């Protein structure tokens, strides 16, 4: 449940399978920190797994690989930023 993010269709299409840039990652982290109990309740209601630690571990893995591989993170349509150690500090 922690990994579901609502997005406008054109933004979702533009982002595709790239990592989210720092402003998006910061908003996601703030949201899950403030709504962990709500997300757990929703997950239990709909029968979806809820594992904040697992979600953060997957995010750390993805951004770590991005950092080591010189990846670019999606900011907005046709705008990308390099993945830096700042990303990992949030996770």
Walk me through what this model shows.
The chain is mostly helical and 91 residues long. The protein has one domain. Helices cover 62% and strands 10% of the residues. The chain has four helices and two strands. It has a two-stranded antiparallel ribbon with strand order 1-2. The longest helix has 25 residues, at 22-46. It is globular, with a radius of gyration of 14 Å. It starts with 8 loop residues before the first helix and ends with a helix. The model has no long low-confidence stretch (mean pLDDT 95).
SS class: mainly alpha
Distance between the termini: 17 Å
Continuous helix count: 4
In the sheet with the most strands, the strands line up as 1-2
Report strand %: 5-15%
What is the domain tally?
1
- Main sheet overview: 2 strands, antiparallel
Principal-axes shape call: globular
Low-confidence regions: none
Helix-strand string = HHHEEH
Q: What is the residue-mean pLDDT, rounded to a whole number?
A: 95
Helical content, roughly?
55-70%
Strand segment count: 2
User: What is the rounded Rg?
Assistant: 14 Å
Which key phrases capture this entry?
91 residues; two-stranded antiparallel sheet; 62% helix
